[in-house]
Amino acid sequence: MTVLPAFRAPRAHRMTSAALAMATALLATPAQAQDMSAPQSGGLEEIVVTAQRREENLQNVPIAVTAITADALESGGIGGTTSLPQAVPSVQLTRSGPSGIFFVRGVGNTSGGTGEEGANAIYVDGVYLPDLGQTVFRFNNIERIEVLKGPQGTLFGRNASGGLINVITREPGRDVVVKGQVGIANYESYSGQLYAASPLTDTLSADIALTGTRQVDGWGRNLATGRKVGFGWHWGARSKAVWRPNDRTKIMVSGEYGKSDDDFASIFHVAEGSVGTGGTQFPGDYNTNTSAYQRVRQRIYGFNLTAEFDLDWATLTSITGFRGNKTRSGLDPDGAQLPLARYAIHSETDSFQEEIRLSSNDTEPLSWQTGLFFLRNKAALVNQQQRGTAFGGVDAGSDLSASMRTQSYAAFAEATYAVTPSTHVTAGLRYTRDDRTLRGEQTPVGLVPGTPLFIGQSLAPRTDSLTYGKFTYRLAIRQDLSNDINVYASYNRGFKSGLWALQSPANPPVDPQFIDAYEVGLKTEWFDRRLRLNLSAYHYDISDYQVRAAVTLGAQPTLLNAASVDVDGIEAEFEAAPIGGLRLFGSATLMRSKFADFPFAPFTYPRPAACTPAGPEAGQITGAATGGNLTCLGSAKGNDTPLAPRFAANIGASYTLEFDNSREVKFSALYSYNDGYYFEVDNRLRQEAFGVINGSIEYRPSARWGVELWVRNLTDARFHVQKLGSALGDLAVPAPPRAYGLNAKFEF
């Protein structure tokens, strides 16, 4: 297994050899672990996933999938998507104001502007979320979350070039369910959750899920104004109705609405060890020192209709979805009391989507699916007001408005055939066509006569359009070695669509990003399903990798294409139930994601600095830091891609101690470790290694009532959700500090 110590961009055949060596070692273990029948009492439950758009045993899917049940989310302290990297080490998250930007196996894009869809798709109940501002949400009605690793370019398709996060919510049935909790925590935090489901008639059931939190005290203060920072509130409601008029038909209607007001991802301050413009220094981990108010107010809503019809020979499924998001943000990204730059942003997105899918009811020897997908999306930067001396005067600047309309059409098909009872081959093909239209205008406001305009500060009304038509495809083979062990190999091609950065409508669009992914894997269950161990190894070739560009003073963020990226990695996951009441689980990923070629990459240097285009480096620092950064262009070949740790892992446990009269005590703990990563392509701003410990103790005097003590980030680890090297200086946004509290739970 030479790939581990050397780890210098091994090619696909080396990854294959490594995985096969693992498989050989495992197959050499005692024979009693094979030929599993039904598990004994206390063994692991079978996990059913929909990774291939039909219900299947997780172990039979030739894809690297992490499936997290509602109980596992709760016991691990994973209360929302922002905590998902603690449960899945191959997933990383950065924030940009209201946007949640996910990376899977190093594939992602740090840009989170209006109109960005991300390189990794997120679905909720089969509905695609076409806006990064909708990807940050909390859980209280989740059945499970599936994280599909690698391109999902056939059955899902839409921008699933690095992976996919599939959220499946609970479905009301024939039983009456009422459960919830109220809680109190540090920082004067109050929370409540309620889930209620009931049959309404013999054929109709409905549920409602309510959740809300309010944090009154802040993590820190704005040293300039004395106001608290790091606080806010949110509430949300989601309801689903299921109608089963007969055994062949199921109609599901669901809707959701949520509001939030916080500054959790917009507490910009000068990064520690850096000097901001005007000599501003680091104000403390959770403090800021800005002259303007920084806050994000958001309203998200959605509606979807899913209809399933059993036709005997196949099942016809129709999924119709509407999604909307309205956001108002106030930002002061200079990190200083100086009136350099402040932003007031009003953005909106609205989308409609329809998918029609036909899938075979028979699965042996042949199973197949085919379908059509349509998406219409409008992302609008309704108005972005930018003011400050960086734009020509204290109250000078410009008003920017821009919109991007997208119409996407796709047709897809995938089939799996059992060549022999133990050998299954899968092939899939998808064609996607995207039509995009841009409209943008930027008008100067209050400029001092004679002040030169900065780049992007003035733009006459502009209209442009582009069209992309691309094929993506998949080929996989799964070989069953026994009832409990199989190996698989796959090749996938995916792409992320080209688009404009709406904050820079004068710039040309970024080209589509393509990925060719090679993967081998081993899935096993041992000791009468008391141990589940899965391994995978992969190699990616990515071309035209989309990255956010650093900018000059006063200009807006834009997008660039890196020439190529290579990604190599190995992953392992396990889950065990060695004795009754005890569950152990963990996973680890070892990865190297680097730019194979990027000749004109943006590098930032703390001022005073000078660009050196003829030298080996893009630029050089010429004196003691005075504040701000200079951007130069150079080669990033060999640099790590952003948000791509070399090593990340977690390990967790839950133990339930049962007494008489339905009394029980449950202990849960989760430790996640990350050895660090870079935030930008120049590899200058780094998040150092950190670990997070979550834990809880729950006592239930009866099956209906319980009380829980919990803690998140027990050791108060200090890390960041974002670091940004801009012309105004190195800026950072902190991750949450330690939190602890008490929940009272009820269930009927």
What does it look like?
This protein has 748 residues and is mainly beta. Helix content is 4%, strand content 57%. It is built from 4 helices and 42 strands. The longest helix has 16 residues, at 12-27. The radius of gyration is 26 Å and the shape is globular. Residues 245-714 form the TonB-dependent receptor-like beta-barrel domain.
Quick take:
The chain is mainly β. Helices cover 4% and strands 57% of the residues. The strands form nine sheets. The protein has a 22-stranded antiparallel β-barrel. Strands 3-8-9-6-7 form a five-stranded mixed beta sheet.
Structural class of the helix and strand makeup? mainly beta
CATH architecture: Beta Barrel
Structural domains: how many: 1
CATH fold category name: Maltoporin, Chain A
